[in-house]
């Protein structure tokens, strides 16, 4: 299994190589940005890098606020995240747009809708994880204080 640090640095190296490749092909900033945003493989590489950066920030926040997460906290969080993913997928199915005509602008709107939904979902999950970990950690502290008093 690949560690997170090696995944992050591999993503960073591929992203930098992709940007350098696009710049050497077009040699101007604007045409390079258009190429990076329209090429599907380059867009996938950039989204992968942004996702790994997001996971790194979330991991840093968890390390800063909670140092290490115990096994029972991990299992509880994993169970709650599974339920949240199911709820979000169900919400996307219920509130999808059926009457889209496949013109260019509607495809752009659909792509923007999917990316913004993904960003919203990741933000929701990260704040939920921080909230659940805070509750679990406070329960642990309260239980230990009562045990020490007795």
Task: Note down, in words, how this protein is organized.
This protein is elongated. It has 2 domains: 1-68; 69-150, no CATH class. Helix 1 runs antiparallel to helix 3. The protein is mainly α and 150 residues long. The model has no long low-confidence stretch (mean pLDDT 85). It has 5 helices and no strands.
Q: What is the subunit organization of this protein?
A: single chain
Q: What is the β-strand count?
A: 0
Derived from helix and strand composition plus strand pairing, the structural class reads mainly alpha
DSSP helical segment count? 5
Helix percent band = over 70%
Topology order in helix (H) and strand (E) letters? HHHHH
Radius of gyration, CA atoms, in whole angstroms: 21 Å
Round the mean pLDDT to the nearest integer and report it.
Answer: 85
Low-confidence stretches: none
Content of β-strand: under 5%
Number of domains: 2
Distance between the termini: 45 Å
Q: How would the global form be characterised? A: elongated
Please give the largest β-sheet.
none
Structural key phrases:
150 residues; 5 helices; 0% strand; elongated
Summarize the model shown:
By secondary structure, the protein is mostly helical.
List the helices and strands and how they pair.
Layout: H1 4-26, H2 29-38, H3 40-66, H4 71-94, H5 104-149
């Amino acid at each position: 299994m690949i560690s997170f640090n090696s995944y992050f640095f591999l993503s960073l190296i591929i992203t930098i190589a992709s940007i350098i490749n696009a710049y050497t092909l077009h040699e101007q900033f604007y045409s390079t940005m258009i190429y990076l945003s329209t090429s599907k493989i380059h867009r996938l590489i950039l989204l992968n890098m942004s996702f790994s950066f997001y996971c790194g920030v979330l991991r840093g926040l968890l390390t800063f606020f909670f140092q290490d997460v115990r096994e029972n906290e991990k299992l509880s969080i994993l169970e709650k995240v599974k339920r949240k993913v199911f709820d979000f997928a169900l919400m996307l199915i219920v509130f999808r747009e059926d009457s889209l005509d496949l013109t260019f602008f509607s495809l752009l709107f659909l792509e923007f809708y999917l990316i913004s939904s993904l960003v919203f979902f990741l933000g929701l999950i990260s704040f939920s994880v921080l909230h659940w970990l805070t509750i679990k950690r406070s329960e642990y502290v309260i239980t230990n204080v009562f045990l020490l008093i007795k």
